[in-house]
Design goal:
The chain is of the alpha+beta class. 18% of the residues lie in helices and 37% in strands. The strands form 2 sheets. Strands 1-10-9-5-6 form a 5-stranded mixed beta sheet, with no helix packed on it. Strands 2-3-4-8-7 form a 5-stranded antiparallel beta sheet, with no helix packed on it. The longest helix has 26 residues, at 2-27.
Length: 145
């Protein structure tokens, strides 16, 4: 009896595995896409890539909140994540909120790096209603220590 139950459980697990893999594949967005790199000399003055504009309202400083603004007319959602150029800095992901003027806004606070590095990479994940449905952009910038 125990062997029959074990085989039934094994059959259920094996049958549900493809469904679980497909669910997580779709949930996580499918294959990884290399982000488009946006050159940015001065994030306060703003950086552009086509109709996408990214800027901060003040010079980013570690451990002090600064306002991040993204303007992209057809965006449905915008998320920004932050890491050091060559180092993971934990979970620093922000969901920007759409403003009445159509821009997207978040108050961001970056942690202090023990190596005293000030070079950050912001990755924007943008969902759109028209193809391409998802886009990812990377932007390098420096902060004040």
């Amino acid at each position: 009896m125990g062997l029959i139950m074990s085989r039934k459980r094994l059959a259920v697990v094996l049958a549900s595995a493809p469904v679980l893999v497909a669910y997580f594949w779709l949930r996580l967005g499918g294959a990884t896409v290399e982000p488009s790199v946006i050159p940015c000399e001065d994030i306060v003055r703003g950086c552009r890539h086509g109709d996408l504009e990214i800027r901060t309202m003040t010079t980013p400083t570690v451990m002090q909140a600064f306002e991040l603004r993204v303007l992209l007319p057809e965006a449905e959602s915008v998320q920004a994540s932050f890491d050091m150029r060559d180092m993971q800095m934990g979970l620093n992901r922000y969901r920007l909120q759409q403003q009445p003027d159509g821009s997207w806004r978040a108050m961001v606070t970056l942690p202090v790096c023990v190596s005293r590095s000030s070079d950050w990479v912001m990755t924007l994940d943008i969902k759109r209603p028209t193809p391409p449905l998802k886009a990812q952009y990377a932007l390098e910038f420096s902060v004040q220590p």
